[in-house]
Specification:
Among the domains are: 150 residues, ATPase, nucleotide binding domain (Nucleotidyltransferase, domain 5); 86 residues, conserved archaeal protein q6m145 (Nucleotidyltransferase, domain 5), CATH 3.30.420.190. 35% of the residues lie in helices and 17% in strands. The N terminus and C terminus are likely disordered.
């Protein structure tokens, strides 16, 4: 392979030599086609300067590939003034990570290619020139991969920690014309409700406790994750402090965070008292997601609903519809990293169309 990490040969890539990378605003996700998958939290808005090092270290733990197939949403982090700045920064960080993977002796660095909503891969120099094509393209990669590998027609519902993507596809291709975040928000195919990071005050304006309805505090005191922990929809973890108050993700602490939304805490209410609050929050989230599904989905009973991500309990699928769980198809770990798996899969199939661009800097 050419030593420039911005070039690609005409040779069809070995699926075992490609690692897909999904660079989000809150998580970094990796997957290969041989079954490896890995994700971890990464607060882009706080730690962008560490991105290249983080990617290099994470990839090194999986084994050095010939190519990194990359998609991103991290350019939306507000540490970047606009998407163009964010895309350029992430492209540069990926190339820096690639160079670090090459090491001081081996001069061959993994190639970096970037997926766009045009359904093609682009080298770094070109990706910087078309930021609106590269930005927030992971949903397109995932839907395209599902349409190619899993089922040719249906609706993909990918519920992540921050957002839900609802993408119709038919005859092996994405079948929406909405490509930008604005268009997708307007259409309903992008729902800013997820299963982990969504603030409670972004879901409900009032909560009822002991028969009394109270306005919630417009503070980031609690998230939907707390509601899911209280109801047993998500496992508690006392070693994980990725929460609104930086405290452990245990049931008692999650309940305390929820109670604060209505002016209470563990000294004035019990953990059990938080259960009806949690249920109202989950109901509100389901209303948003399922309402969007009704708007976007074709309603064709013969077209399956493909569920991805790790918040499938927030989706109510009509009884007459067939459901395909991507977690069963790919395995739970790869399903949580599904966009990373998707860009790896797409690159092994679509490498040839950009071969004429080899050698670009």
């Amino acid at each position: 392979m050419n030593t420039s990490n911005d070039s690609v040969t005409n040779k069809r890539p070995d699926p075992q030599s490609v690692i897909g990378v999904d660079i989000g605003g809150a998580n970094l996700k990796y997957a290969s086609l041989d079954g490896q998958a890995f994700s971890r939290g990464f607060e882009m808005w706080k730690r962008s300067a560490e991105l290249a090092e983080a990617i290099a270290n994470d990839i090194a733990a999986m084994g050095t590939p010939d190519c990194l197939a990359i998609t991103m949403t991290g350019e939306l982090a507000d540490c970047f003034v606009d998407r163009s700045e964010g895309v350029a920064f992430i492209v540069d960080a990926c190339h820096e990570a690639s160079k670090r993977l090459a090491g001081p002796i081996d001069t061959t660095a993994p190639a970096c290619v970037f997926y766009g909503v045009d359904g093609r891969f682009h080298h770094g120099a070109q990706a910087k020139q078309i930021p609106n094509t590269i930005a927030a393209a992971n949903w397109h990669a995932l839907a395209s991969a599902v349409a190619s590998v899993v089922t040719s027609s249906g609706t993909l519902v990918d519920i992540g920690s921050t957002t839900t993507d609802i993408i119709p596809f038919a005859d092996g291709r994405v079948s929406t014309n909405a490509m930008t975040d604005y268009d997708r928000l307007t259409e309903g195919s992008l729902v800013y409700v997820g299963c982990r990071r969504t603030p409670v005050c972004g879901l409900v304006h009032r909560l009822t406790l002991n028969g009394i309805t109270t306005p919630v505090m417009n503070e980031w005191f609690a998230t939907i994750d707390d509601a899911r922990i209280v109801l047993g929809l998500e496992a508690q973890d006392d070693a994980d402090c990725d929460s609104a108050d930086g405290g452990p993700r245990t049931r008692d602490r999650a309940a305390n965070r929820l109670l604060r939304m209505v002016g209470h805490d563990r000294k004035t209410m019990t953990t059990k008292a938080a259960e009806p609050l949690a249920q109202q929050i989950i109901t509100a989230a389901k209303r948003e997601i399922n309402g969007a599904l009704e708007r976007v989905d074709s309603g064709d009973v013969d077209a399956p609903i493909v569920i991805s991500g790790h918040g499938g309990d927030l989706l109510d699928v009509p009884r007459q519809r067939k459901v395909i769980d991507l977690g069963v198809v790919l395995g739970r770990d790869r399903s949580r990293c599904a966009p990373a798996w998707a860009v790896a899969e797409r690159w092994t199939r679509l490498a040839t169309p950009i071969a004429s661009e080899a050698g670009q800097q």
